[in-house]
Design a protein that fits this description.
alpha+beta; three-stranded antiparallel β-sheet; 5 helices; about 25% strand; 9 strands; about 150 residues
C-alpha cells in the first residue's frame, strides 16, 4: 500500500512538474492598460525608446527662464527631454524594484501639483519602464511594480 501511495505521489510530480517558477499573472502591458484605465490617464507622449508618458493631466506647463512651456509641445518639438523636466522637479525617493524614482512638482510648474514616477523595475517586478504623472501622491507608488 505504501508503494502504491508513493507511486501516485511520484506520478503527480512527474505529470505536473515540481517547479517553483512563478507564473506571471499579468504581462506589463496588461498591467499598464489596467492602471491607465483605472486612473483615467492619457498617453501624453511616447519616447523613442518605446517608453510612454502617461498623465492624469492633459496639460502640463512649466517655467523655463521667462517662458511658459507646454510639456507635450516641447517634447514633440524636441525642445525638451524628460530628464530636463525631471531636473526641474523635487526628488521624493527611489524604490527598491530596480531603480524606479519618484518626483514632485514645485514652483517651476504652473497649475495643479503633480507627482511623477519614472519606472525602472526589474523583470521580476514587471519590467515596467514607462513614466506616469498623477495628481495623487499615493497613486504614484503603484505604477511601477505589478502587484
Amino acid at each position: 500500500m505504501k508503494k502504491l501511495i508513493l507511486g501516485v505521489i511520484i506520478s503527480i510530480f512527474i505529470l505536473t512538474g515540481c517547479s517553483n517558477k512563478v507564473v506571471e499573472q499579468n504581462s506589463s502591458t496588461d498591467w499598464i492598460n489596467k492602471k491607465v484605465s483605472e486612473n483615467k490617464l492619457i498617453k501624453l507622449y511616447e519616447l523613442k525608446e518605446n517608453i510612454a508618458i502617461y498623465s492624469k493631466l492633459d496639460t502640463i506647463e512649466y517655467k523655463d527662464n521667462d517662458n511658459i512651456i507646454n510639456l507635450k509641445d516641447a517634447l514633440e518639438d524636441g525642445k525638451v527631454t524628460i530628464d530636463d523636466l525631471i531636473s526641474k522637479m523635487d526628488y521624493l525617493n527611489t524604490a527598491n524594484d530596480g531603480g524606479s524614482s519618484y518626483y514632485e512638482s514645485n514652483d517651476n510648474f504652473i497649475g495643479e501639483k503633480f507627482y511623477l514616477a519614472k519606472c525602472n523595475s526589474l523583470e521580476g517586478n514587471g519590467g515596467i519602464k514607462d513614466i506616469f504623472i498623477d495628481t495623487n501622491e499615493e497613486n504614484i507608488y503603484n505604477y511601477c511594480v505589478i502587484e
